Amino acid sequence: MSNYPDFSLHGYQVNQQLGYNHQGGRFTYKATNFSTQQPVVIKQFRFVTDGSDWSSYKAIEREIGVLRSLNHPGIPRYLDSFNSGDGVCLVQEYKDAQSLSIPRSFDRDEIKSIAISILEILVYLQERIPPVIHRDIKPENILVDEQLHVYLVDFGLARVGGNDLAMSSMVAGTVGFMPPEQLLDRPLTEASDLYSLGATLICLLTGTKSNNLGSLVNNSFHINFKPLVPKLNFRMIEWLEKMVDPNLDHRFDNAKATLEALKPLYVTRVPEVELSQSSLEFEASQLGEKLSQTITVDNSIPETVLEGSWEVAPHQNDPPHTPDHHAWISFDPRDFSNNSIQCQIWVDTSKLIANQFYKRQVILHANSSLEKHPITIEVKTASLPIEIIKLPYVSLILLLFTSLAGAAIGATAASIAGAAAATLIGVAVGTGLFAVLFATLGVVIGTVVGIGAVVAALTVAVIGVGGWVGAGALAAIGLWLWLGFGCGWALAVFRDDRGEESNLVENLTNRGFSEVFAVWFSLLTAGFGISLGISLVVGLLNPYAISALAGTGLPLAAMTVYPPLKRNRLIAKYRASQEHLIKP
User: Fold this and answer.
1) Other beta carbons less than 10 A from residue 23's beta carbon
2) Separation in Å, CA 485 to CA 398, 453, 530, 549, 553
3) Hey, which end of the chain has fewer CB within 10 Å, N or C?
4) CATH value of 274-380 in 3.90.550.10, 3.90.1150.180, 3.30.70.60, 2.60.40.10
C-alpha cells in the first residue's frame, strides 16, 4: 500500500516524492494528471504537521497568487490548486530538470548561458506592472535540464509591487544569498534579486555548495570569490562583483542593464603567454661570476591580465628548494601581473663546479590556458685557471738586451768620443733612427729605450766621465750603433699569438694580461735593462747604479711572480669549497 497522499478525487495520481520540509510542513510530489496523462508537480502545505506555521501557509498562498498571473517559458506554469483536507495544494507544470544544488559539470560558457536565461526571466518579472521580486534566488530554486533549458521555481517569498512581508519570512532564505538590505529589513528594489543571482553564479563558478557560501562572506557582506577563479576573465569578475556589491546603489539598476552588460563578455577568455625565448644560454668567463639574461613575457589577448610566477624545476643534484628560493637560480621579478614585462633570470656560478656544463629547466606558472611554460637554461662555467698565462720571454729578453746594449753603448760613447764629431753625427742620423725605433717596438717602448740611451749618456756625464754638450750627441751615436744589430731582431721576434706583428704591450694583452700590467711590465723591463747597461759602464757598486737597479728590478720581480701567486690563491680557494659545490 502506497504511503503517498491520495489526490485521486482532484484528478491526480502521486507517483513520487520530490522533496519535503518538515519544519515548514511543505511536501513536493510528482504526479500524473488523469485527464491529460501529463506529469505535474504538486506542492502541498499540511496544517497538522509538526513545525508548520502560518508563514508557510501564507507562502503557498502567495505563490499561487503570483503564479496565476505569470506566463513565461522559464517559469513552470500554474495549472491548479485545491484543498486536500489536511492542507493546501499547488499544481504546476512538471519540468524534467535538476536543481543547480545537485553537483553537475558546467563549463564557463554554459554558466554564462544559465545566467542569461535567469536574467531574461528576471527582466520579464521586473517589467510587469507591478514588478515581481523573487527574493529567494539560489541554486535550489533554479532547474536546468539536459538541453540547458533554465527554469526559476519557488515563488513563496515573492513580493509583488509594494506589498511588504514580515521579517520572519524575509530571513527564511539561505545565508549568503540574501542581499544585506533583505537581511536588515530595508526596502528592496529590482537590484535585490541581482545579488542573489550573483551569489548563485559564484557557487557555480567556484564549485561552492550553497550551505558553504557563507564562509566566503565577510563582515561587510562582501563575497570574496576572486582567488577561487584565477582564470576568469577580469571583466566577468568586475561584472560579478558589481552584482554582489553590498551597497545597493553600486549594483546594476535592474536585470535588463545586467543582461546587456553580460552578453558581450568573454567568460572563458584567458591570457596567452608569448615568450621572447624558449631557452637561455649562459657562459661564465671567470670563476664565481654572476650572470643574467632578460626574457620578455607578453600577453596579446584583450580584456585579460596575465599573472605569472617563476619557479625552478626540481633536479636531483640541486639542494632542496622552495618556489621562492633556489640555490643558484633567481628571478627578478619572481611574481608579476602585467601584459608585457621583462624578467631577469640570474645564475650564480660561485655555487657550481668549474669547467662544467649545467642544464636546468625553469617554469613560468601563468593563468593562461596552458598553466606551465618550461624554459631550458644551459650554463657553461668558467675554466679553472690551472694553466699559467705565459709571459713572452723571448721578446722580454730581447727588450732587456737592447735596452741594456743601447744604454751601455750610449754611456761608453759619452765617455770616449769627442764632442764636435759626436754632435755632427748625432744631428745627421738621430731623427731617422728614432722613426725606425718607433715603428719596430712601438711608441711607448721605443721612447723609453731611446730616452734610456740619452739618460745613460747624461748619467755618465753627470758622474764625471764626459761633458754636458757632447753627451746628447753621443747618445744619438749610441742609438745608431744599437739599432744596427737590435732592431732587426726585434722586428722578427715581436709577434703575437696569431703571428701578426705587434709591440710588446699588445703581445702581453693578447695573452690575457691587463693593459695596465702590460704597460708597466714593459716599462720596468726596459728600465731595468737601461739601469743594468749604465751599471756595466760606471760600475755595479756605484751608488747611483745600485739605486737604479733596485728601483726597477724589485718591482719587475714582483710583477713577474704575481700571476702564478694569484693563480695558486684562486685554485686553493676553489678547492676548499669544491666539496660543497653543486654537481651538473
Assistant:
1) 12
2) 11, 15, 17, 25, 25
3) N
4) 2.60.40.10
d(CA 34, CA 38): 8
Instruction: Report residue 187 as a C-alpha cell.
Output: 526596502
Give the three cell numbers for residue 428.
Answer: 745627421
| Helix, strand, coil tally for the chain in percent (to 5) | 45, 20, 35
Nearest to 86 by CA among 48, 30, 50: 48
Each residue's pLDDT tens digit, 146-181: 999 999 999 888 888 754 433 334 455 567 898 988
pLDDT band, very low/low/confident/very high, at 188 (cuts 50, 70, 90): confident
Q: What are the pLDDT digits (tens) for 347-362?
A: 999 889 888 999 999 9
Instruction: State the cell numbers at 576.
Output: 676548499
Q: Which amino acid is at 122?
A: L
Contact of 125 with 131, CB cutoff 8 Å: yes
Quick check: helix, strand or coil at residue 86? coil
How confident is the model at residue 169, as a pLDDT?
Answer: 42
CB 132 within 8 A of CB 66: yes
348 Rama sector, left if φ>0, alpha if ψ -120 to 50, beta otherwise: beta
Of 412, 425, 397, residue with least CA distance to 522? 397
| Euclidean distance between CA atoms 393 and 67, whole angstroms | 109
- End-to-end C-alpha distance for the chain, whole angstroms: 79
Looking at residues 422-435, what average pLDDT do you find?
38
Q: What pLDDT, on a 0 to 100 scale, did the predictor assign at position 174?
A: 67
Helix (H) or strand (E) holding 366: strand 357-366
Q: Report the C-alpha dihedral over residues 257, 260, 264, 266, rounded to 10 degrees.
A: 50
**CATH code, 99-269:** 1.10.510.10
| Chain segment 37-64, per-residue pLDDT in tens | 999 999 988 866 555 556 666 777 888 8
Q: Which three cell numbers stand for residue 6?
A: 491520495
> So what's the pLDDT on residue 412?
67
Inter-helix orientation angle 234-243/255-262, to 10°: 170
335-337 vs 279-283, strand pairing mode: unpaired
Residue type, 550: A
Tens of pLDDT, residue by residue over 373-390, are 999 999 999 887 655 567
Max mean pLDDT among 254-268, 494-508, 514-528, 560-574 falls in 254-268
> CATH homologous superfamily for 1-94?
Phosphorylase Kinase; domain 1 (3.30.200.20)
Q: Is 348 exposed, middle or buried (0-12, 13-18, 19+ CB in 10 A)?
A: middle
Q: Which of 525, 531, 511 lies closest to 441, judged by CA?
A: 525
